[in-house]
Amino acid sequence: MTPESLTTGPPNTMSAICAVCHRHTTAPVEVRHLQPPDAPGTTVYTCPQDTGTLQPGPGTHEHPHTRTAD
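Predicted structure:
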């Protein structure tokens, strides 16, 4: 172990608020991405325990207007 490794911060991890139980989770599961036509999108997450309680919707890259032409 080097002295530098003792002074560096923790690794950056993804975290979110669960849309079902409203608790903070460091292991969020993407359920759907809401993309209004005239505003930035919002991704809905659940914690691992609540996965499957919300009906999944389109993901971050699955909206028709964000797809590229084939």
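Summary: The radius of gyration is 17 Å.
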